Amino acid sequence: MLNSLSIKLQAHIHTLIERHPALKCCEDSIAKAYLLMEQSYLSQHKLLVAGNGGSAADSEHIVGELMKGFKLPRTLNNEFARTCQAINPEMGTTIARHLQGALPAIALTGHLGLSTAYMNDCAPELVFAQQMYGFGQADDTFLAISTSGNSKNIIYAAIVAKAKGIKIVGLTGSKESKLSALADVCIQVPETETYKIQELHLPVYHCLCLMLEDRFFG
After folding, report:
1. CA 24, CA 29: separation in Å to the nearest integer?
2. Residue 4 has what pLDDT?
3. Which of 4, 98, 128, 158 is most enclosed, with most CB atoms within 10 A?
4. What domains appear along the chain, each with residue ranges and CATH number?
5. Using one digit for the tens of pLDDT, what is the confidence trace for 1-38?
6. Cα four-point dihedral sign 59, 139, 204, 153
């Protein structure tokens, strides 16, 4: 699967493995996960991300890397910049100077009004599933983060995603799980303790974000 990527994109995975040799076993699944995300973006769709605890923070982190420049400047499209300047020359110029290209991504962890209302009024374990149903469209990708792979609110969201034709990328620990069984691709980092799993999740998702940025803004 790695060989199906361009040399430039392969280089990101090679760098990841050089820095974190334990992730060699994930090389193929990272490449597969990237290709699913790339296809969503090529078809003008988006990434949905969710997790609990530290993985909720990771979800927000991932969205931050995708929705603005990560390593590259992501200069605004010239035609869009001119349109903004035609509407308001002064403010349009500021927009053209500072706005950055974005890869649409939504963290399902960040909508406090919606999530607290749903958990209070309905079923707390379906809080991500409700958002998946509302935000999700066929050909989106769901990046489901769970160190155990068995978090109920993540599994409910994954079931809704599959029912809607949304591709699922799991990010878990090494053990087989409900999520690894449901996902189109599951990146199972080679650890079993929660904090150690999370320590490997970060370089994995940074690698994916770097690859996506290189593909669409490089």
Report:
1. 10
2. 82
3. 128
4. 2-67+102-217 (3.40.50.10490), 73-101 (no CATH)
5. 778 899 999 999 999 999 999 999 999 999 999 999 99
6. positive
What's the length of the chain?
Answer: 218
What tens digit of pLDDT does each residue of 176-214 get? 999 999 999 999 999 999 999 999 999 999 999 999 999
DSSP state of 137: -
In sequence order, what are the residues at sequence separation of 6 or more whose Cβ sits closer than 8 angstroms to the Cβ of residue 65?
205, 206, 209, 213
Hey, is 106 helix, strand or coil?
strand
| Number of separate helices (H) and strands (E) present in the chain | 10, 5
CA distance 211 to 16: 11
| Three-class secondary structure of residue 50 per DSSP | strand
What residues are paired with 10 via a beta bridge? none
